[in-house]
Amino acid sequence: MKIFGKKKRDKKQKTEPKHVRVIRLMLWRLFKKTRLRERIKKANEWAGHHIGTTASITISLLSISLLVGILITVLTPESEENPSFEGIVLVSPMFDGMRRIQENKTYQVSQVEQMTLRGKQLKHELDSLVRIPLKSHDDSVKIVVKYKQLEMIVRNLENN
Fold first, then answer.
1. pTM of the predicted model, to two decimals?
2. How far does CA 37 lie from the centroid of its chain?
3. Residue 47 CB contacts under 8 Å (≥ 6 apart), including other chains
């Protein structure tokens, strides 16, 4: 039973759009009117009976088309002084752009590394300042300033 259901679904899925059906109908009418199918069948029968003639006609037509192509190529004047590079795009600006992007990337990576090193250095200094048992006013100011700097570095690293 499932087999029959699948066939029906497949048949529904294979329905063609309307414009394809219209074109197919128009072509069918044209071929019917001109009797193209019968003419092709008749030409094939003639070619089957006259194999040598068919081969010679085919070879001669191909040779003529080859000669015409060679003549057109030879007789067409080419300007060797000004070769046309219209279709070729200059790639040097693209490479320059890629190089610039790579340089900016390496610069950004180096900046992040420097900020990381500076953050580690600030943390070490901040830890040593916090460990001092008796702090002066300058020590407290240094702790606050270094803490703010460390906060800024951490925020920048998190954003990047």
1. 0.41
2. 44
3. 54
* In the block, residue with structure tokens 């009797």: 35
Q: How crowded is the C-beta side of 15, counted as CA atoms within 13 Å?
A: 6
Q: Tell me the HSE value of 55 on the side-chain side, using a 13 A CA sphere.
A: 5
Q: In the structure encoding, which two tokens stand for residue 13, read together?
A: 């899925």
Q: Give the integer Cα–Cα distance in Å for 157 and 2.
A: 62
Burial of 122 (0-12, 13-18, 19+ CB in 10 A): buried
Q: Which amino acid is at 59?
A: I
Q: For 123-135, what is each residue's pLDDT tens digit?
A: 998 888 888 888 8
Whole-angstrom Cα distance, residue 139 to residue 118?
Answer: 19
pLDDT, tens only, 93-125: 888 999 999 999 999 999 999 999 999 999 998
CB atoms within 10 A of CB 112: 13
DSSP category for residue 81: S
Q: Which alpha helices (DSSP H) does the chain contain, by range?
A: 2-13, 18-34, 36-49, 51-75, 92-130, 137-159
Helix axes 18-34, 36-49, angle to 10 degrees: 60
